[in-house]
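Appendix B, Record 12. Input sequence as logged:
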Amino acid sequence: MDLLLNISLFVVSLIVLLFASDKFVDSAEKIGLSLGISPFIIGVTIIAFGTSLPEMATSIASVYSGTSEIVVANVVGSNITNILLVLGLTAYVGKEILMDFDVMDTDMPMLFGSAFLLYFVLLDGYFSTIEIAVFIVGLVIFLVSSFGKDKTDKSDRPSARITDYVLLLIAGIFVFLGATYTIHAVEEIATIAQVNPHIIAITVVALGTSLPELIVSITAAKKGKHAMAVGNVLGSNLFNTYAVMGISALFGKLVIPKELITFDLLFMVAVTILFGIICIRKRISKWEGAVLVLFYIFFIGHSIEKIL
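Logged structural output:
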């Protein structure tokens, strides 16, 4: 009965978290457009940050609750899910993704750098104060480089209303509440089922918190906004690595699971490199998307084997 109640709590809390994140993203997008920010930059920054809010909120909540091993597992699992499942399904459902912008110029090298930096930082199983500072600086560099380019013409800018700012605030509050109870449910489920919280975080929690990226990217691709779809995935992974890791660590010491370093972290670096390779032609085909989803199925299968 306790297991059923906590599973129900997990589902309800996750729904609240995703719904609040969706409203946050809508408001943030309107505000961003009113400031003259281009669709790709909105995708790679504002929407990416908004869709990464579940990861951020659940990670901070896990630090406060004493299960900080969930943070790294959530970041690594979400980055893998974003590239393989979100990008893969977006390309498959949208038939193909065409890129009329050069992600290999600045954004993809920054993503590579964040993935390699996360790997080398976590190799010793310790996330130091200096390393936290490096990640925060990395986040600032990414934001400054993104917002410093591609402004739109003032005549094309819609106006943001006061209700957009109010909704942004209210949605942020519900994101926090949803995250708090999501993590509480995960802890209880892990205890009752005698499963390592890191396994649940890297699979179930990572998938759940990546749903906003999945919904936003597929919707954007169907509307022909391919720049926003790719920018969302790329930006979300950068935010997960720099912001979620760096900011969560400010609230307490992060526990780094040894089993995550031996496979999951290396797998994340590999799929990040794969992401860059398939973007070289500025076109991601439907079948390349299918292969990405196939890799994701393999990853989930490998994680489930650890439980059995």
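The first strand starts at residue 96 and ends at 98.
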